Amino acid sequence: MVRVLRSCIQSILKLVNSVIGMAGLAMILYSAWMIRVWQRQMGELPFDHDSDYPPPWFIYTFLGLGVMFCAITCSGHVAAETANGCCLYLYMVFVVLLIMLEAAVSVDVFLNKDWEKDFPKDPSGNFDQFRNFIRTNYEMCKWVGLSLVSVQGLSLLLAMILKALGPHQCYDSDDEYGPERVPLLKNAPPQYAVDQGYGHGSKNEPWGWVSDKTNR
């Protein structure tokens, strides 16, 4: 029963964790599109150190978040497949840090009226476009954000349950069946050793008596 429950939780954790990976891939693709737009407008890549323009921090941030989401997804798949305690602990730490980061940004946006001043000016203009898109489609973006946070919380809960169930048990060892075979061994008939001196008398008989029997 425990093995079936563990297998189900592993499959669900992989499925839920894949949603985080899909979000990370979407961020990476959007970052690649922003890099392409920047290169087309500025004539150079945003990663050039000799550029005369300030670095587009929004592109860096979105790309870094996408890579982090994909890294968390990979660690989650490894943790779900192996059910190893260290891997599960590491995955839970990553998810908790990610949720704390998202919570800090959300609190700053909702409680601080001048939250836009906390971010530097983005020379690419993508930050303003992203902000206007969120304001225009606020309801949709709100539900997408809540769904993503709920998926992260669910993956954290599943990882905790999987950690509580423990790793897989190994059933290939013969030692596990030893206690079950002990009663059978106790009831087994005694084993008799073959007497090497068969035909020549008992071992306990003196040699002289055996010799007399032979001479007769």
Task: Explain the overall architecture.
The protein has helices at 2-42, 57-82, 85-111, 126-136, 138-165, 178-186, 207-215. The radius of gyration is 35 Å and the shape is elongated. It is 70% helix and 0% strand. It is built from seven helices and no strands. The longest helix is centred in the N-terminal third of the chain and has 41 residues, at 2-42. Residues 170-182 have low confidence and may be disordered. With 216 residues, the chain is mainly α.
Brief sketch in words of this structure:
It holds the Pfam family Tetraspanin. This protein has 216 residues and is mostly helical.
What share of the residues lie within helices?
55-70%
Task: Give the oligomeric state of the chains in this entry, treating copies of one chain as homo and distinct chains as hetero.
Answer: single chain
| Low-confidence blocks of residues | 170-182
Question: Major sheet: size, sense and barrel closure?
Answer: none
Radius of gyration: 35 Å
How far the N terminus sits from the C terminus, by CA atoms, comes to 75 Å
Quantity of strands, as a count: 0
